[in-house]
From TrEMBL:
Signal peptide: none annotated. It catalyses: aldehydo-D-ribose 5-phosphate = D-ribulose 5-phosphate. This is Ribose-5-phosphate isomerase A. It is an enzyme of class 5 (isomerase). It comes from Amphiplicatus metriothermophilus. Catalyzes the reversible conversion of ribose-5-phosphate to ribulose 5-phosphate. It comes from the Bacteria. GO terms for molecular function: ribose-5-phosphate isomerase activity. GO terms for biological process: D-ribose metabolic process; pentose-phosphate shunt, non-oxidative branch.
């Protein structure tokens, strides 16, 4: 299903484009397919959203550039952890949310690829990642908890750890707090409240950003075009 979604996104790619390359297992399919196309003569440049993606794209033979080497990203393609009916997303399960959001926000078109299991009626069952600065992270985490509770959400948060028990550190050197909000009724309100806390670098709420979401299903693809708001 992930591969099908990635293959459909490939139909949006044209020669000469600069592409934002997302992170995660679904984006990896897109990078692999892009590599195949490059080997068959397609000429594109990629802006990777993580070190993992950079390594994968390099191995696939995709030419990479630094974000500051371009002023235009024609199309960014990335996965998601949850997608609601409006095309709003939770991202950051792999910890790449900050770079992903920077690239998606700059791109002329931001297209999300996902398997159908990522569809939800309301965001929040997937713990919301919030990237925070390391300085005084305990104090920042306390304020994140307070912000959740103030919105009637459970203040159930956890600092993300790696499997070996060490704190998870993003490519940018920050920490990640995962918020088990369960049901986020007002994503924009929550996003604003979290971002107003000094120490919060970015949230995994990608709101009104996706131009379309391509879901890979058991027998094809479904495309969600977010309604105008
Ligand atoms: O930080 C990671 C990214 O936001 C991923 O795009 C997201 O977690 C979805 O990953 P996957 O395609 O592996 O489910």
């Amino acid at each position: 299903m992930k591969r099908r979604a990635a293959a459909e996104a490939m139909t949006l790619v044209a020669d000469g484009m600069t592409l934002g390359l997302g992170t995660g297992s679904t984006a990896a399919h897109f990078i692999d397919l892009l590599g195949e196309a490059v080997r068959n003569g397609l000429s594109v440049k990629g802006v990777p959203t993580s070190e993992d993606t950079s390594r994968r794209a390099e191995a696939a033979g995709v030419e990479l550039i630094e974000p500051d080497e371009t002023t235009v990203i024609d199309l960014a393609v990335d996965g998601a952890d949850e997608v609601d009916a409006r095309g709003d997303l939770i991202k950051g399960g792999g910890g790449a949310l900050l770079r992903e959001k920077i690239v998606a926000a700059v791109a002329k078109r931001f297209v999300v690829i996902a398997d159908a299991s990522k569809k939800v009626a309301e965001l929040g069952a997937f713990p919301l990642p919030v990237e925070i600065d390391r300085f005084a992270y305990g104090l920042t985490a306390r304020r994140i908890r307070e912000a959740l509770v103030a919105q009637g959400l459970p203040g159930d948060i956890a600092l993300r750890h790696r499997p070996d028990g060490a704190a998870f550190v993003t490519d940018g050197g920050n920490l990640v707090v995962d918020c088990r909000a369960r049901r986020i009724h007002e994503p924009a309100l929550l996003d604003g409240a979290l971002k107003s806390i000094p120490g919060v670098v970015e949230t995994g709420l990608f709101l009104r950003m996706a131009e379309r979401v391509i879901f890979g299903t058991a027998d094809g693809v479904e495309v969600l075009r977010p309604p105008a708001r």
